[in-house]
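Good morning,

Both structures are done.
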Amino acid sequence: MDLATFAPSPGLAATTTLETLETPCLVLDADRMDRNIKRLRNPLDDLGVSLRPHLKTAKSIDVARRFMSAPEGPATVSTLKEAEQFAAAGVRDMIYAVGIAPSKLARVAELRAKGVDLVVVLDTVEQAQAVAEASRDAGMRIPAMIEIDCDGHRSGVVPGNHAQLLEIGQTLAAGAELRGVLTHAGDSYKGGGDHAQQRYAEAERLAVVKAAQLLRGAGLPCPVVSVGSTPTAHHAKDLTGVTEVRAGVFVFFDLVMAGIGICQVDDIALSVLATVIGHQREKGWIITDGGWMSLSRDRGTSRQAIDQGYGLVSDIDGNAYQDIIVADANQEHGIIAVRPGSDARLPDLAIGDRVRILPNHACATAAQHPVYHVVRSGSHAVEACWPRFGGW
């Protein structure tokens, strides 16, 4: 895909700037985004594996077109609403990477009947039986991937449970389609530095490669071996036996990713534009109209070495202030203050001045907004408005 240009949104006023937008609103720095995309693609190309980007962060057709390798995919989604929206835009190759609920299989079959190669994910015999039954009812073999638990973080078949893995595989092969194995190194979000991330990446790789070998040794098909998390995708040194990598938040990055050393603060492409609406000078507060309804309640950095509150405050150009955070938030009020323990000083911001707040978790913050206001680095001109969607 061409990352150098994008078409302006029809009807967008030529004079729309960061100063004229209604606040709070979501701002996307296209230059930072494009740089982030290239940063991940290059090493994966060198390792000889394809990128199956996770579209759950973006939930936007316009953003997806920037980082998918082709308009038809491949792609990863986390909701059937995403699958339906992206399918309507022409995406034909998707993994629905959340354990399948049997009640949702009718929607899966409906999308597949329209020519969408939508693959489900599961980790129990009961789910495999439900997929096999839905396949018989629909007159088609619904493809499924078996999730492997590579680190005890969340879901998946424990790698040593060979009997369960084979039973699931045999059930799928008999009544549906066994497409392969998949895992997600959730422990990589704990950080630990480059060496730790390389260990997470290798553990992730070994878990699925060994599962694939076991299935194949039993005469079962396993064409796809899929790994993926943004931290491990940036640290993998060897992907032998892996066919694809999934990652999503790398397109924007966020403060959690910066906190574990996957990116720098200056790489974060997403921010919330907010307006100063008051001061509590005796308390050392600046009040904005950017409360938790626009920032989200995600406090992921509270578990990290540096707590960024509800977000790190930047000036209107996107340059982060030193140790100035949204220390607290109400529904529609954000409270800007100096980070506890710092000797930094509050910026001199008047009523009506604007700031950009970098998010703890890009997915959660973006979910609060209906549209991305797209700018270039260092520019206040809004060059496009890209819709995003939510729901399940």
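Second structure follows.
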Amino acid sequence: MASIRRELVALIERGAIPHEQVARAVALSGLHPSGRAWGVFLDRLLLWLGTLSLASALLFLVAYNWADMGRWLRFGLVQAALVAAIGVYWWAEGRGPVDEGRADDGVVVNIVARAALTTASLLLGVLLALFGQVYQTGADPWQLFFFWAVLMLPWAVVARFDALWVLWLGLLNLSLLLYFRTWGGLFGSLFGGDAAALWGVFALNTVALAVWELAARRCRWLSTGWSTGLLALGSGIPLTLLMLMFILDEWADVSAALLIYPLWLAALYFIYRYWRPDLFMLAGGCLSVIVVVTTFFGRHLLWQGGAEGFLLLSLGVLSLGALAVFWLKRLHVEMSP
């Protein structure tokens, strides 16, 4: 649908479609959803809202009635729901492709099976949290999310579902952040504190983004734009924060960011400008550069105070924003068919 919209906009801008025929071209292109399309959208929206509501309801039921429930009742409810979710998955998969949909690579997908396996993955985390709370194992919080990710990995492989993989990566990110918060550093004095956490998150998401992009060349169900956009944010935000730390001289052990940041920007430009054009990724790079440059000049211009520094900084932000918009608009025209 997005590609059809871009092609239609490009034809209208070039004047290939007369102005009086634009409305007819839009109607024939199928950009406006039909009644059946609205029905499918509402059906799947209610399915996913119901899935998340059931998993959350079980969690809050156990938490609210904790004092009135015995140990076996708590475990019984969660485990019964987990078995039921897996049973729904097997039942839905056994039905075969019954008007469920088709992935971009031609593989028939079953939305009900995916929703059931997602519910099972969420309930797995509830079960692990319940086990740790009941038996007071003394494990660190990061271990809960790490083992949750390890145990749900086979389900993510089986499901072939990008949202489940994003959930898995989110658990790894959370466990990594909690690990550095607990232990405070990595490899002795090389990295420490918040800087180590940011380096870890940056490395994890950058590797995940590279693997995701390469895998999407063969598995087209991974080629959804929102998932790669989230991974790019998970890679770019920590590195940008590390650059801000270096500029503001808050941590001396982040000087490596001065070397890695331009390399990351160059890789972002060449990959998403030539290899797989993506305007969102390039816009994110522009925003990161604007933030870093503004912080650098702000630290030096506002050091002594005064209205002149604020005026120059405002003009600089406006100029950088205008240049970014001008460049991105040119790229948008070039990327259009």
